[in-house]
């Protein structure tokens, strides 16, 4: 079983003909409200790849919370450990210009109230998990506690350090898999973090593929290039979720990473995060073609 600890949030996207000035109202805009939050996205990706997954996050008492539960019920994500409290579910407002340039404002809401003590109340979940996935859209102390509880319970830990945030290096080093993108990796290098020889660093590099480093050995895996890129928003979460599901199913490191490369590549061909995440059979089919061209 995989336990995902972190975030759910609603994404409110407004596409505008231009950004209004101070005090100005403009028409001609379009609105879309969708599911977001890195941890929820990753949990859905895990479920679509056939993984058994439980999500530990926080929701408010609003319509966004109701929508989240409907999503998880539909996708097969176990959500009995989600903290429900009075207040607002995390939401992000994204204003997108015709050029694709965007401006984003995040209201964390009750997600900021997910505490280390809340996690302590679910020690049994950490003890039961084979793999725990943690991102950094929750308070730092909560993310660190999730890693510590997972290791105390004997689980493998995958840390997706997004968004990049200062953590105690000794806690980062506890993660078995450290999975940043290029900018996140650069952030931790600047902070002086050096991965121990026992930690696997899986760095996603977009069109440059994925590099896997263990100790002094690094291997770079080729990307799967798509001719038509529609939306890259959910690619990172698709990669993490697919990678986690493959590892939990017993795949070797290289095989799990290749499967995740294929899934994330398929995701960029479809608009919006949840609709873009491919199912297991789609990944199986595309993976065979990818391996034929890269091996």
From TrEMBL:
Keywords noted in UniProt: ATP-binding, Carbohydrate metabolism, Cytoplasm, Kinase, Magnesium, Metal-binding, Nucleotide-binding, Potassium, Transferase
* Family in the record: Belongs to the carbohydrate kinase PfkB family. Ribokinase subfamily.
Superkingdom of this protein's organism: Bacteria
Which residues are involved in binding K(+)? 231, 233, 267, 270, 276
Associated pathway: Carbohydrate metabolism; D-ribose degradation; D-ribose 5-phosphate from beta-D-ribopyranose: step 2/2
Q: Which organism is it from?
A: Ornithinimicrobium faecis
Does Iron show up as a keyword for this record? no
**Entry's localization field:** Cytoplasm
Recorded catalytic activity of this chain's protein: D-ribose + ATP = D-ribose 5-phosphate + ADP + H(+)
Tell me where it mainly resides: cytoplasm
Q: How is its activity regulated?
A: Activated by a monovalent cation that binds near, but not in, the active site. The most likely occupant of the site in vivo is potassium. Ion binding induces a conformational change that may alter substrate affinity.
How many cofactor units bind, and how?
Requires a divalent cation, most likely magnesium in vivo, as an electrophilic catalyst to aid phosphoryl group transfer. It is the chelate of the metal and the nucleotide that is the actual substrate.
- Entry's EC annotation: 2.7.1.15
Q: What is the name of this protein? A: Ribokinase
Residues recorded as binding ATP, renumbered to this chain, are 181, 204-209, 236-237
Q: Where is the active site?
A: 237
Q: Could you say which residues bind substrate here?
A: 37-41, 137, 237
Enzyme class, one word? transferase
Residue ranges occupied by any Carbohydrate kinase PfkB domain in the UniProt entry: 16-278
């Amino acid at each position: 079983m995989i336990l995902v600890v972190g975030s759910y949030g609603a994404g409110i996207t407004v596409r505008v003909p231009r950004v209004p000035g101070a005090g100005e109202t403009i028409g001609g805009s379009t609105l879309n409200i969708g599911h977001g939050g890195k941890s929820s996205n990753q949990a859905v990706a895990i479920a679509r790849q056939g993984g058994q997954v439980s999500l530990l996050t926080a929701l408010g008492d609003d319509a966004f919370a109701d929508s989240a539960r409907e999503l998880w019920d539909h996708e097969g994500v176990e959500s009995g450990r989600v903290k429900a409290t009075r207040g607002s579910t995390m939401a992000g407002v994204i204003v997108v210009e015709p050029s694709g340039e965007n401006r984003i404002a995040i209201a964390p809401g009750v997600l900021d109230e997910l505490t280390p003590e809340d996690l302590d109340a679910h020690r049994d979940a950490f003890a039961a998990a084979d793999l725990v996935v943690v991102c950094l859209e929750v308070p730092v102390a909560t993310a660190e506690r999730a890693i510590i509880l997972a290791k105390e319970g004997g689980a493998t830990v995958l840390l997706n350090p997004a968004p990049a945030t200062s953590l105690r290096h000794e806690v980062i080093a506890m993660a078995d898999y450290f999975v940043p993108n290029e900018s996140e990796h650069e952030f931790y290098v600047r902070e002086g973090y050096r991965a121990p020889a026992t930690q696997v660093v899986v760095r996603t590099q977009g069109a440059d593929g994925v590099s896997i480093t263990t100790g002094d050995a690094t291997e770079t895996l080729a990307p799967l290039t798509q001719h038509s890129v529609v939306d890259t928003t959910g690619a990172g979460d698709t990669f993490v979720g697919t990678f986690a599901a493959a590892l939990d199913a017993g795949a070797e490191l290289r095989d799990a990473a290749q499967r995740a490369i294929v899934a994330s590549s398929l995701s960029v061909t479809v608009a919006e995060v949840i609709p873009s995440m491919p199912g297991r059979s789609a990944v199986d089919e595309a993976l065979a073609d990818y391996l034929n061209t890269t091996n």
